[in-house]
Amino acid sequence: MIQLPVRASTAGLVASILVLAAAPTARADTAKVDKAFLETQNAATDSILQAGSSSLGSPTAALEVAHRLLVHRENALVALGKRLPLTTFNGIETQDRFDRHVVETLHKALTTAVAGDTTLPPQSEAVAFNQALPMVPALGDKPVAFMVVGMAEASLVAADSLIARREVPAPDAAELSLRLMHYATNTYMQAQEDPLTQAKAETMREGSVVLRMRCPKDGGIYKVVQEKNKIHENGSLSHIYWLNCTECGAAQSIEFPMKLATRLNQAGARQILEKTPKGKQPDDGLKP
Ligand SMILES: [Zn+2]
User: Fold this and answer.
1) How far does the centroid of ligand 1 lie from the alpha carbon of residue 247, in Å?
2) How many angstroms separate the alpha carbon of residue 252 from the centre of ligand 1?
3) Which domain, by its residues, includes 219?
4) What is the pLDDT of residues 170-191, one digit of tens each?
5) 8 Å CB contact between 145 and 96
């Protein structure tokens, strides 16, 4: 398991913030996301939902909307990769913000689609659906958006394969697929609901960013040599990771803003100092 530097309790959170006295002052890179990409592609994502919104009552039509959203996401990321490699900090941060929007949009569509669905397809069809489902990593309760997209893609593959083989009636296959996708998007949305779970989900995401980064020189993966929290003059806080390439040893440091901790700190919250857990390799389950 990844060790969460942000503790489960508010007291722990503030305590971990106050380990700042020991934090080095070295500069770290904060992400420069591709704002033009996000603006264009988020709007295109919204348009797909808007165009399909009147047909979401039909499972097969709703499945088609989900399909269009995921194809759009795939194409957009190919385009992004040409501007900004998806193995760089800026590329990954841009992808994650886009994926968050895709998952939120998909969730809106799916919530409408499954709202009127009160009948359950027969057990035998559910079994056939599970058998047709490609293997995907477990989501856990605080998934990163790209993991939710992976689950949604897998459930589309399962539905398409059952429909193509005429094993299950198309509306039933669509219903089963929509339900699994909705479970995935709902898990994501729930983790974003309150600031504390959101802060923990963000820490999981940070770990997954490190796992997806590759050294530009040799494609090597990075290991975390140190992680610390940093307080800025305006009272805002951020989480910094110092990384080394496992191939050539090149050093890189990346910085993530901590929204909840910043709010608590700026509100003047103060607690007794505690030690923050030391940086470890992030969880294998977060690997892309
Ligand atoms: Zn390297």
Assistant:
1) 5
2) 10
3) 10-31+215-286
4) 999 999 999 999 999 999 999 9
5) yes
